Amino acid sequence: MRSYFKNWTDRLFKSRNGRRTLVALSLLTLLSLFSCTSRKSASKPPVDDRPVSAIPAPESIAIVGTPRIRVAVAKAASDLRVTVPPGGARMRYSGAGEGRALPGGLDLAISLRSTGLALNSENLGAPGELRIEASNPRELLLLDGKPLAPELRVLTGGAGMTVLAHLDLEVYLTGVLAGEVPYSRWGSEALKAQAVASRTYALYQMKQHRLDAYDVEATTADQVFRLGAQDEPVLRRAIEETYGLALTSGGRLFPAFFHSTCGGHTDSAAGVFPEQALVEPLKGAACPFCTESPSYRWQAELDRKTLRERLAAGGVNVGAITALIFEGGDTANGWPPRRTQVRIVHSSGETVLGANRFRLLAGAGQLKSVMFESVADSGSGFAVTGRGFGHGVGLCQYGSQGMAREGYRFQQILGLYYPGADLTKVYAETVAAR
Ligand SMILES: [Zn+2]
Q1: How confident is the model at residue 95 (pLDDT cuts 50, 70, 90)?
Q2: Cα dist. 72→134, 144, 244, 341 in Å?
Q3: pTM for the full predicted model
Q4: Most exposed: 115, 133, 340, 382, by fewest CB within 10 Å?
Q5: For the chain, what are the domain ranges?
Q6: How far is the CA of 401 from the centre of ligand 1 (A)?
Q7: Centre of ligand 1 from the C-alpha of residue 260, in Å
């Protein structure tokens, strides 16, 4: 089903006049949407319900048709079960010959042996790449009983098998929405904002990794990808109504990072992802919208002995801990700073760790962010309070949902969390047209 938005933008894209109108409208809208959000104030912008507008992609990033993404869905695997969809499939091993037709419904047990890959007990030969492709590209091969992608590749080498799913980027995004947000209770505009952020992130990684074996991993290392709910109407709508839309800055894609809860102010990329320090939309913004998050404020109790053991497990050996001192961080925005380092005072001296390293070693589930507010000696350990959940850069997911609940549209949500970014139509072919 084509949305009003797509019809409207498609119509504009089809004529030169339309394109000029679109650019003019875009400039006006973008100026008004995105410029007002770069101020470091916590005031809420007015709701803007003008039609969505996007600028055409510059030639350097424009794509014809829907791109395919290569997702590493399993690493270091020793056994796999792949099921062929009803329409059948074709397999090839290490590019040899025409390959072999596989009938629909066939189960393939794939395992790694010292002599190479084995398929249903048949030895395929020296280690190589197994490629299995559904005959009908609309059908999905199943991995361990779950529908995954029309094409799978199994690579050998290193610590086991790496399984790559090659699939349409838009289908991949339904899996990312399912993996990243509670879509059944999230507002539709928050889902659309997440779809655009995730599409931007994926397109950026595809450009970065075009010479590598895959583009992204299916975990929090990139974006959590969980296929199985791709036919859910709310997910399909969020993807279709933002089809081909991504964010750019100065005509370039950038990694549109996101996190659960910022705690009041998103962070600049400079501290967390220093290689992106110059990306204007990742400089941080005030967020008055995530106060409903269960992680807006948190407290954690770090047991003295457990903390010492956890640090030791990470290769940091300290004596009996007497104090924790949180240091560094930008205090300019008037919010509790995201700390850059932790000084551990103990019986053998003092040890200084990067704040995020300390957080990961001590337990990232307890210490939800490095926006530490206070620390106190509780006798058996340390009582720590803080705000937010995650690295704090880019879109705040709970804030985005807070905005959606207050009636903001997705382009305003994106404008707040990626100030100065341009909403850009990177590819325009529609799902229905294929
Ligand atoms: Zn927030």
Answers
A1: low
A2: 18, 15, 22, 33
A3: 0.83
A4: 115
A5: 4-65+171-288+393-425, 79-159, 297-387
A6: 10
A7: 8
